[in-house]
Amino acid sequence: MDIYFLFSFVALGALTGIFAGLFGIGGGGIMVPILTYIFVKLAFPVEHIVHMALATSMTAIVPTAIASLRAHHARGAVLWPVVLKITPGILLGTFAGTFLAAYLSPKTLAIFFSFFMAIIAAQLLSNAKPKPLRQLPNAIAISAVGSGIGGISALVAIGGGTMTVPFLMWCNVALPVAIGTAAAVGLPIAFSGAMGYLINGWSVANLPNYTLGFIYYPAVIAMASASFFTAPIGAKLAHSLPVPLLKKLFALLQISLSVQMLYTVFGH
Fold it and tell me: Beta-carbon neighbour count of residue 236 at 10 Å?
């Protein structure tokens, strides 16, 4: 692999870490489109590039999720009873979602990814927040919600915060605690997704060197190493920069990257 591509993975990880620290959201919206573009430039098999981008992105989230969980736990902002109730559904839904992703074509995955990111971007632009209209449901219902969150997370390689936080706020959980709890939920999502993509890609032929299943591990190592150092920088910047304005710019960036991803996939 050319040093240029290794540098690209490091730069991508650094950028993702800063945005994660600023906004408390996963990096799939950035990593997946850019990884898809880089994998095309590396001449990886076109029929696997989106699957590899999703798998690599989700695996790179694992160390970031651990760091985020620890930070929020230290602040007492994690509802561990909720985490324990939602985790079985999260694990099942995310794992099952990787099997669906492996079955779908790159073009179908790219369309779904772009559509979902457009919804997230619209939410960021409008700054819409759910009204707290009810209390937390029972364990079975929470686990069922977790299955849905996990399944979608596997298809777009996110930590689930964009869905978990609104759900918890709708159930009368305060925003800081909702964010902290969603950060804890992000770990089983990332871990289950990584294992699912590893298993689903294990026997796939014609994958490039340095892969474990669909996971391209040189990119994982480079991105995770960089984001580990830049995420705290983003968290500090959140206290000195105009975050509402940056969220709107980030939403526009997500839309642009999603369009680029569609062009990359459909143009090959």
Answer: 11
